[in-house]
Amino acid sequence: MGDGVDPVFRSWSEGYDPEDDADRAVIQTRKEIFPFWGLDPHYD
């Protein structure tokens, strides 16, 4: 799953990388879906 690179775990508490495609997808999903379920989309 690392596509030739060793994947490294990084906690959301360390912040997110706005240049990372996966991080942007997670943030966008949280903004769109969490409020629908009454959840706070903010991660901090």
Essential attributes:
44 residues, mainly alpha, 1 helix
Element layout with pairings:
Elements: H1 21-33
Describe the structure.
The chain is mostly helical and 44 residues long. It has a domain at 18-44. The protein contains one helix and no strands. The protein has one helix at 21-33. The longest helix has 13 residues, at 21-33. The model has no long low-confidence stretch (mean pLDDT 81).
Quote the beta fraction.
Answer: under 5%
**Tally of helical segments:** 1
Rg (C-alpha, Å): 13 Å
By secondary-structure content and strand pairing, the structural class works out as mainly alpha
Count of strand segments = 0
Quaternary structure of the protein? single chain
- Average of pLDDT: 81
- Terminal CA distance reads 28 Å
Uncertain segments are none
Q: What overall form do the CA principal axes indicate?
A: elongated
Major β-sheet annotation:
none
Write down the secondary-structure element order: H
Helix content: 25-40%
Describe this structure in a few short sentences.
The protein has one helix spanning 21-33. The chain is an all-alpha fold.
